[in-house]
Amino acid sequence: MATCQNGWPTIDAASGVGRYTIPGTSYAVTCRPGDSSVILLDWLGFVHAEVEPLLVPGVWGWAVRNVRGSSSELSNHSGGDAVDASAPRHPLATGLETWKPHPQSVQRIRRRIAAYNAAAPGVFRWGGDYTGRLDSMHGELLGTVATRKRLADAIRQGRLPGERSYLVGQAPIGGSAPAPAPAPAPAATGSAALPSLRAGQTSDAVRRLGEFLVRTFPAYAKFRPNGHYGPATTAAVREFQRRSGITGSDADGTIVGPRTHAALWRHGWRG
C-alpha cells in the first residue's frame, strides 16, 4: 500500500474518507474518519471563529496527489490527513503576511498549535512553520494512532490548555464527538462510480479535475485550478473531448459525464 509523506497509508477511494461540516459554517470538507477528522475539523473551526472567516470555495481536504513539485512523494492530502484553509488567500510559497492583521493572526495560530502540542506533542503541523517553502494555508497530521487519539480526546473533552474546543456543528464541546455521517458507498466501480461534473460547479472534485488536467495535459490545460468549473476548465475539457473522439451534446466541455470520465480514466484519472 502506498504511503503519504507522514508515513500513513493513502486513501485511494472516496468510500474510505468522510465528508464533515466545518464548525460554524455550512461548508463541508473531506478527510480521514475518526480521531483524525476531529483534529482537522477543530483546526478549521478555530481558524474560522478566531483568526479569519474561511474563504469558500477555498477550503481543501482529501485529494490523491503528489507534494507540489515532487514526482514521487505523496502529499498528506492523499490520506485525508491535511486541510488547506482559505487557499486562494494564502498561496503556496508566500509569506505569513497574508494572514491579517499581521503579526497578530500568526501569533494567535501559534498559541493554538502550542495547546495542541501540550495535549499531544508532534501530532499537528502548520505549513507556516515549515523550515523550507512556506505553505501557510496548510495544516496536517503526523503522529501515531495513540497520539492522535490523545489529542482528539482532549478536543472532545474541552481539555486544550487555555483554548476552547470546536467540533462538527458545535463549540465548545465537553463530551464525545457526534458521530459523523458515513460516506456513501459508490453504486458502481471504476469510472462509472464518479459523479458528473458541470460548468458552474464549485467543489473539491472540480479542483482535483483541474489539477489532473493541468498536470496531465499541459499542452492545452493552462490555468490555475481553484475548485470552480469556469471557462478555463470548460475549454480544457472540450479540447480533451475533441482529442478523445467524444462527440454529441455532452461534448462541449461543459460536463464531465460517464463517457468523459471513462476516457480520462484511461489516462490515470480517479476522481
Structure description:
The chain has helices at 35-51, 104-119, 145-156, 204-216, 231-243, 258-265, and strands at 18-21, 28-31, 82-84, 124-126, 138-141, 197-198, 255-256. It has 271 residues and is an alpha+beta fold. The protein is built from six helices and seven strands. The chain starts with 17 loop residues before the first strand and ends in a 6-residue tail after the last helix. It has two domains: 14-156, 2-Layer Sandwich (Muramoyl-pentapeptide Carboxypeptidase, domain 2); 190-265, Orthogonal Bundle (Muramoyl-pentapeptide Carboxypeptidase, domain 1). The protein has a three-stranded antiparallel beta sheet with strand order 3-5-4.
